[in-house]
TrEMBL record, chains A, B:
Protein name in the entry: Transcriptional regulator MntR
SUPFAM superfamilies hit by this protein: Iron-dependent repressor protein, dimerization domain, Winged helix' DNA-binding domain
Keywords: DNA-binding, Transcription, Transcription regulation
GO molecular function: DNA binding; DNA-binding transcription factor activity; protein dimerization activity; transition metal ion binding
Reported function: In the presence of manganese, represses expression of mntH and mntS. Up-regulates expression of mntP.
Pfam family, one: FeoA
Family to which the UniProt record says this protein belongs: Belongs to the DtxR/MntR family.
Organism of derivation: Chitinophaga niastensis
Residues of the HTH dtxR-type domain: 1-64
InterPro entries given in the database record: DtxR_MntR_Metal-Reg (IPR050536), Fe-transptr_FeoA-like (IPR007167), Fe_dep_repressor (IPR001367), Fe_dep_repressor_sf (IPR036421), FeoA_core_dom (IPR038157), HTH_DTXR (IPR022687), Iron_dep_repressor (IPR022689), WH-like_DNA-bd_sf (IPR036388)
PANTHER family hit by this protein: IRON (METAL) DEPENDENT REPRESSOR, DTXR FAMILY, IRON-DEPENDENT TRANSCRIPTIONAL REGULATOR
DNA sequence: TTAATTATTTAGATTTGTCTAAATAATATT
DNA sequence: AATATTATTTAGACAAATCTAAATAATTAA
């Protein structure tokens, strides 16, 4: 099955929006891909014909087994290139997504596997997301919660769910990265903002929106 | 000026066929790009409108100053990725062209320059071709001739002009690579084949076609 | 349960890059 | 110089991916 770049981007976005087994709606996919619902309907028909998704008029989209396999390969390439850019070329985590969005479309298993090997077969990418192996198997992520719902006091940052440059740049500015340890000092009921403290730094208050996108686990 | 992948491939092929200042013909470009002359005419009109080439009906194609600049950037990316694949991922020289053909279209100056730095700012690629720097400047290639026209006896391989997998695989099999030293043992007038001797190896005879594509210089 | 709203699909158009077949221009041959 | 051959361009078509505007289905609210 030879996929175009556009088809690959659709498959990957469907995978992302599925999160388990939820049906993906036309509008959600259009928003995610920054395109129009009419375009999504067109592509849905095509991917359905290619048996990469299950799609019926008005009933939403899910990946077929084959589509899921394809998605995992694309995600693998995306995340490996992100590792390369950070580990080898010293990019920072807010610059890499865009570049990986293009590099992921170079479809060579040999290249992908060599790259993985060269990087030491990493299992998480610079944003804390797991990297599928050559067979599409992914390490189950260790239990983690978003910072706004954490109940333990002492936490470590394990991932960031929103990968927009804006959020990542904000976290950079505040010294928050993967592995950063922090303590919750206070919850403010008024706007659900949270005061946290990083080692060696003065406490700072972050908005609910930020807290929702930082994943953490205890100690 | 934002170029599509197709436009970049055209620009690069025109650059390749120009070799100095020769006018590139419609048919030659069609052959090089494995497409049809009619398609070349269409694209020529477009690139001319974008001022990347000079083109007049029936008068052939040359790159404009801007087109040449664009070409050098693409060539730079192509050859840097080839270096990466060989030096870091242990690919051999006959496997890399195809992959670089895709990687070259990731248009990020920052990525390109970081990659160059990471590789130690190489000035020749795995096929012996010079790599333009960030400003498009290329080391002038040291004087070299094709093996079939060399008159010195003791020679060193400096480049390979035909980058087809077939030729490169042949050279691999015979132990000929960049930097290989060889001696010309005999010219056979009948078919212009050449007998050569590599250190520690029995002499071998290569066809005129092969000899034409191996570039060498004395000692 | 009808009416209003929202979501989705269809119809028809557009852009990009390609093609085939036919027409025309340039070049080579007699 | 006329003719044959080759090179190039044009005309018209097509596939992929997108869009806008209109139609229709599904959902929600009254
Ligand atoms: Mn992408
Ligand atoms: Mn990532
Ligand atoms: Mn290319
Ligand atoms: Mn090369």
């Amino acid at each position: 099955m030879n996929l175009s770049i556009a088809e690959e981007n659709y498959i990957k976005s469907i995978y992302k929006l599925q999160e388990g087994d939820e049906v993906v709606t036309t509008n959600a996919l259009a928003y995610e891909l920054d395109t129009k619902p009419a375009s999504v309907t067109d592509m849905a028909k095509k991917l359905n014909a290619k048996k990469l998704i299950d799609y019926e008029k008005y009933k939403g989209i899910t990946l077929s087994a084959e589509g899921k396999k394809a998605a995992l390969q694309i995600v693998r390439r995306h995340r490996l290139w992100e590792c390369f850019l950070v580990d080898k070329l010293a990019f920072s985590w807010e610059e890499i997504h865009e570049l990986a969005e293009e590099l992921e479309h170079v479809r060579s298993e040999k290249l992908t596997n060599r790259l993985s090997e060269y990087l030491g077969n990493p299992v998480i990418d610079p944003h804390g997301d797991p990297i599928p192996d050559a067979h599409g198997k992914m390490a189950k992520p260790r239990p983690q919660t978003s910072l706004d719902q954490a109940n333990a006091k002492r936490l470590v940052v394990t991932a960031v769910t929103d990968q927009s440059t804006a959020l990542l740049a904000f976290l950079n500015a505040k010294g928050i990265k993967l592995g950063t340890q922090l303590e919750i000092v206070a919850h403010y009921e008024y706007d659900n903002s949270i005061e946290i403290k990083l080692k060696q730094l003065p406490a700072l208050t972050i908005s609910e929106q930020v807290a929702k996108n930082i994943m953490v686990r205890p100690v």
